Amino acid sequence: MAVRRSPVTWGLVLLVIALVGLGTAVALWWPLTGAGTAALQRASATVTRPASCGAGGSALDEVEVKVDGQVRKAKLDGCGHRQAEVVEVLLPEDRSGELTVQTAGAASDAPPLRARLETLMLCLSGLAGGFYAYLVSRPVPRLRSVFPAIS
Fold first, then answer.
1. How far apart are CA 120 and CA 128, in angstroms?
2. Distances in Å between the alpha carbon of 51 and those of 47, 76, 77, 100?
3. Terminal C-alpha separation, the chain
4. Which are the contacts of 40, defined by CB distance < 8 A and separation ≥ 6?
5. DSSP annotation of 92
6. CA 51: distance to chain centroid?
7. What is the spatial distance between Cα 6 and Cα 104, in angstroms, rounded to a whole number?
8. Radius of gyration of the chain from Cα atoms?
């Protein structure tokens, strides 16, 4: 004879599954909050010494950029710009020592694709879990036989 489970047992099972899922999501997501969102500030830079792109792999233009009210020389992570050309650049968070800047169009301001996919998958798993809980908690309809019972 099969033991029939009470609704309290199913509620407890669903609560444990939900808490484990929530704990897993928090454990995976928490270290990533704020990751890769270093404070990059936009600035205008003027090319002072252009570098030819055919001069090898380490060809970097030299630019002048205004950092914290001071004009500083920096290396531009790129090549092939014209002398006195004004380029929008992103300043790194650490501005001490020798600066290396990159063009503003080279870096995306949007969150990385990985973070967006993780958020999408987390939402989909939450919806699937909620739908599963709904299906489990629904009473199972009894099908009536179209054939008469044989006694």
1. 12
2. 10, 10, 11, 14
3. 22
4. 90, 91, 92, 93, 107
5. -
6. 35
7. 61
8. 30
- Residue appearing with tokens 């630019």: 63
Contacts of 28 (CB under 8 A, 6+ apart): 118
Nearest to 43, CA basis, from 2, 82, 95, 80:
95
Q: How many residues does the chain have?
A: 151
Mean pLDDT, consecutive 10-residue stretches, the chain (151 aa), reads: 59 74 69 55 90 75 89 88 91 84 76 72 79 79 71 63
How far is the C-alpha of 83 from the C-alpha of 80, rounded, in Å?
Answer: 10
b/e map 33-69, b = 16+ CB within 10 Å: eeeeeeeeeebebebeebbeeeeeeeebbebebebee
Structure tokens at 139: 């009473």
Q: Which token pair is 6?
A: 């009470």
124/5 Cα distance (integer angstroms): 29
| pLDDT recorded at residue 87 | 92
Q: How far apart are CA 78 and CA 102, in angstroms?
A: 7
